[in-house]
Amino acid sequence: MIEKMTKYSFILLNGEEKDFLSRLQELGLLDITRSVKPVDNQSSGLLARAETYRRLMTELEKVFIPEETVPVPPGEDIAGEAEKALKELEKLVEERKAAEKAYAAALHWGTFESEKLLALQEAGLTIHFHSVPAKTFREEWKETIPLSVISEAKTVRFVTVLPAGETDPLPGEIQAPDEAPELIKDRISGLEAAIDRQKSVIYGIKQQIGKIDALYRKDLSALDLYLAGVAASPAAENTLVTLVGFAPTGEEDAVCAALDETGVFYFKEAARTEENPPIKLKNNRFVRMFEVFTDMYGRPAYNEFDPTPFISVFFLLFFAFCMGDAGYGLILIIVGLLLGKVESFKSYSPIVVTLGIGTAVIGFLFHTFFSMDISTWKIFQPIKGIFLPGKIAGYDGTMVMSIVVGVIHLCLAMIVKTWNETKNKGFAGSLGTWGWTLLIVGGIIVGAFSLTGVLNAAATKWVIIVLGVLSALGIFVFNDPKRNKLANIGMGLWDTYNTATGLIGDVLSYLRLYALGLAGSMLGLAFNNIGQMILGDGSNALLWPPFILIVLVGHTLNIAMAALGAFVHPLRLNFLEFFKNSGYEGSGRNFNPLQNQ
């Protein structure tokens, strides 16, 4: 349900709003009305600094720290040290990559001493390094020029010795390696040691990453406080400031006690719809799981109703109809319990388990277990009467139940719309809606009573006449008391056309529950039959593995596809059919109290 809100208006001296908002932030119960939030130097600075802290935490978490690493405790400026340490580590890693690349290139030339190469140059000789494909190398080159082959494979690497200044005629000359492989390897070892030392520094910082997180949250809190402050509207020639906030009426005593301590002048009144107060929902544990679906569409306006209790019941029921298999329900329960063991998916565990329980119950009533008909099993013969019959009035039982549930869903939507309009517009202003609700909902109830024998034919006739007359008056005469009666009749005829055509389509939409359940059941049955065809009478042990594989893979795919349809289509029936017939718009805003992070 929607919690009632109390509006608080504050008047204080200009310049005092910062301290006052800090007190409200500590209280954590008031949603301060925000206007335009300018991006100025102060707000952008806070945002940039918070972003830096967030980036540092992300980068620190990515650094792999070996188990044997000994942490180095950081100093006071932990954020500055983290920035410095990460940059230094990045620099060392890049240097190591460059050294490893140089080592791989120098390795082909073997061991050499740079001092001896330098001595040859001083003696007037130049060493030229060459690298050519093996197919282009010619042995006769050795006869015309001093040449020594260093390595041979797909590529031939060789050196030539010529007097200084003389041009080397052979192809493939490359730049001489700067260092011998051994020297580069020593340099790589030194870099790895430096990287390990740097990781020790980072490890020490990671052990106190909570301090960076505290700085991050502090800046976010300061930014939130600052933006709330700039929403204040100056009054009385910049000598006074007025602020408006909303808090749940149930917290009124705590809010007033805290405000009285501040000494700030304020007055309170019940929030009005036209003030667009924030919306806070208050539901029990079961219904609260489904608030996420309400938020997907939009929270109710202050004068609307909370659709979450209806979504919780009917989404669960529709999901179970679409899955329609007790075995699949058990699988969902197991998946939900496993999700509870994973921290990042823990919040989804309760709703998955709940949907699994609903699917298992409905699937059992539909006597379907992994697409097998359990009503034929001997173990269930004593309780066979609780299973949904295969035929109801000559039609498929599941199809009939889908239509029945859909009619109940739409009737409930119309009742909710009537109640909500009566609350907002008064009885006289909602007579048109009352007329349609009496005609449709009342007619269905009377029809049900008549079919079950509660009302005899004579009583049914008179009740229908009375309902018809009252409905006609509401629909065609009093649908808008402020409008001309002839105009009301014309509008009533137009509403009749729209309702008659729309309602039929809405009812038929619920056949999707039957169709999705049937499709999933038939597909699962097909996998069962394929597996049974392969297995035969089960006497051949070699046929059991392919049988198990086909059934396991087939039902896994079927569960995945059925779950997708069972999520989308029930959501559609609630968002479209129910919301349309209940008049729900979902234009409210979330309750967002100013509080410390």
Provide a short characterization of the protein structure.
With 597 residues, the protein is an alpha+beta fold. 59% of the residues lie in helices and 11% in strands.
Describe the structure.
With 597 residues, this protein is α+β, with helices and mostly antiparallel strands. It has three domains: 5-58 and 213-275, Alpha-Beta Plaits (2-Layer Sandwich); 112-179, no CATH class; 285-582, no CATH class. Helix content is 59%, strand content 11%. The chain is built from 19 helices and 13 strands. Strands 1, 2, 7, 8 and 9 form a five-stranded antiparallel sheet that branches. It has a four-stranded antiparallel sheet with strand order 4-5-3-6. A two-stranded antiparallel ribbon has the order 10-11. Strand 12 and strand 13 (395-396) form a beta hairpin. Helix 18 (511-535) packs antiparallel against helix 19. The longest helix is centred in the last third of the chain and has 39 residues, at 544-582. The protein is flat and about 130 Å long.
Total count of domains: 3
- The percent range for helix content is 55-70%
Give the number of DSSP strands: 13
The main sheet comes to:
5 strands, antiparallel
- Name the beta content range: 5-15%
Count of helices? 19
Q: CA-to-CA gap between the ends? A: 27 Å
Shape category: flat
Gyration radius from CA atoms, angstroms: 39 Å
Structure classification:
alpha+beta
Q: Segments where pLDDT lies below 50 for 5+ residues?
A: none
Overall pLDDT confidence: 84
